[in-house]
């Protein structure tokens, strides 16, 4: 029995598609596709920017110590809400890692999850992320909406939300973002 070239190609195509559902290739392929279709988030126009007025917000650091968001008043702040089980978060966190590498000593980063420490630590190690993880305290008042994951905020020194990206991932490792952050850092 002779198998045609078309049949072989169809079998290979079906095998490739099935591999996206049952193998690690699919997971990494989906992460790559999410990264491919992520773009630089656009700043909110100055007249439409929300303002953070209450910095009294309790959080936990990577060592599970409590601290207050008040320590970031008067600084440029980046906040990202994420979950290790959300595939889009993995793709976005890769660009956030590069953003952190470039600005980790210049702005305050709050990469926030509401998960427990052990799975988060395993996730961080698996993906070789080195940015600081912040843990959300459920039920604690907060100046942002924790419901949409992933979502991100870039806040200027006066508390204005310059970028609010929700419902989807963003590419934080690019020249537009770096130029914007440099301008935010330069303003008084």
Structure description:
This protein is an alpha/beta fold and 188 residues long. It contains 5 helices and 7 strands; from the N terminus they run H-H-E-E-E-H-E-H-E-E-E-H. Strand 4 (108-113), helix 4 and strand 5 form a beta-alpha-beta unit. Helix 1 (5-22) packs across helix 2 (24-36).
Report the strand count. 7
> What radius of gyration results from the CA coordinates?
20 Å
Report the mean per-residue pLDDT as an integer.
84
> What is the terminal separation in angstroms?
78 Å
What's the helix count?
5
Keyphrases for this structure?
188 residues; 17% strand; alpha/beta
In brief:
The chain is α/β, with parallel strands linked by helices and 188 residues long. 38% of the residues lie in helices and 17% in strands.
Tell me the layout of helices and strands.
Blueprint lengths: L4 H18 L1 H13 L21 E3 L5 E3 L8 E5 L5 H17 L4 E6 L3 H11 L5 E4 L14 E5 L5 E6 L8 H12 L2
Parallel strand pairs: 3-4, 4-5
Antiparallel strand pairs: 1-2, 1-5, 3-6, 6-7
């Amino acid at each position: 029995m002779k198998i045609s070239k078309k049949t072989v190609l169809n079998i290979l195509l079906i095998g490739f598609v099935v591999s996206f559902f049952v193998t690690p290739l699919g997971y990494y392929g989906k992460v790559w596709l999410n990264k491919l279709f992520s773009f630089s988030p656009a700043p909110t126009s100055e007249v439409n920017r929300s303002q953070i007025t209450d910095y009294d917000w309790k959080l936990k650091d990577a060592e599970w110590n409590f601290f207050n968001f008040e320590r970031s008043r008067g600084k440029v702040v980046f906040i990202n809400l994420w979950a290790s089980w959300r595939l889009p978060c993995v793709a976005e966190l890769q660009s956030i890692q590069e953003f952190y590498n470039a600005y980790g000593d210049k702005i305050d980063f709050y990469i926030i999850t509401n998960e427990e420490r052990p799975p988060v630590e395993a996730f961080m190690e698996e993906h070789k992320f080195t940015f600081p993880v912040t843990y959300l305290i459920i039920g604690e008042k907060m100046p942002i909406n924790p419901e949409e994951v992933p979502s991100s905020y870039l806040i200027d020194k006066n508390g204005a939300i310059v970028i609010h990206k929700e419902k989807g991932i963003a590419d934080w490792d690019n020249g537009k973002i770096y130029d914007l952050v440099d301008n935010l850092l330069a303003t008084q």
